[in-house]
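Hi all, long-time lurker, first post. I run a small reading group and we've been trying to get comfortable going from sequence to structure in the token notation. Rather than ask abstract questions, I figured I'd post a concrete chain and ask someone more experienced to write out its structure so we can walk through it together at our next meeting. Sequence below, copied exactly:
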Amino acid sequence: MQWRLAHPATAKLISGTKRDNALLRQVDSGAAAELLVLDINFENNRADVERLLADGASIRYFDHHFPGERIAHPALSLTVDESPELCTSLLVHRALGGKHPAWAVAGAFGDNLPGPAARLAEAHGFETGQVAILRKLGELLNYNGYGSELSDLHFDPTALFRALYEYGDPFAFVAQSEAYAQLEAGYAADIAEAAAIRPEAQNENGRIYMLPDIPWARRVIGVWANALSQEDKQRAHLILCPDGRGAYTASVRAPQLDPYGAAAFCRQFPGGGGREAAGGITGLKMGDIPMVRERFLAGFAGN
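-- Answer (accepted) --
Happy to help. Here is the structure in token form:
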């Protein structure tokens, strides 16, 4: 939203569920395209970046997850910062010189960065009520990304982007959009279901939860992990959920008071990755769950 409001363009939109992040494989070869890439792991897309650059594409890439080996190319602008105080929304805000701060604030809240989001909102003079609206909007947009399949989501992310762009202003979208009302109602229902789930294991280092094999659980896994991490800032959190395909998805949050180590922990396992404060594992086998639990409760030190 920030970038396209500052630089309007008629573009093909490519997106997916939260864990479907190797999106550049969907871009055809042979086109000297101009690509804007946001918030997907560079490590998982590096081969396609190289392929597209060889085809003559130019790529502007913003991300805050562990990137693996970076590459240098005159047609690649790569902005990756793993600081736990930053997210892609804040990186774009910085690159644009702060042209659309309301969307940056919403994005930071949605990525579970309430401190940086609140400071940015204060710096731009947003009132308390406006900050609350942007926080809820960011959380709802993040919530819409979680699921094993697009059918788990309330909206295809590309359709939701078009709805947001039609309004342009986040406050107008919240006040007038039926899409916002649907997300708000869905979120409230899913969070109410999750509230009944108790930890299946916990110690001084962390808490572990297991969600049921049902669409609402796959939708709520990420935002509920964020909420739990805000509730108990001293401990890490691990949420496990069947993915509907015979495996499990894990969502990991480092302690808010020591927001490091989540990505390194998740990368110990196939399908794992993320950033310092938050990570996840996709396609986790049931037989690996005891090891994940054991290592998680031992803490992140040394990972």
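A couple of things your group might point at:
The beta strands are 34-38, 58-63, 76-80, 201-202, 206-210, 236-242, 248-253, 272-274, 278-284.
The longest helix spans residues 178-194.
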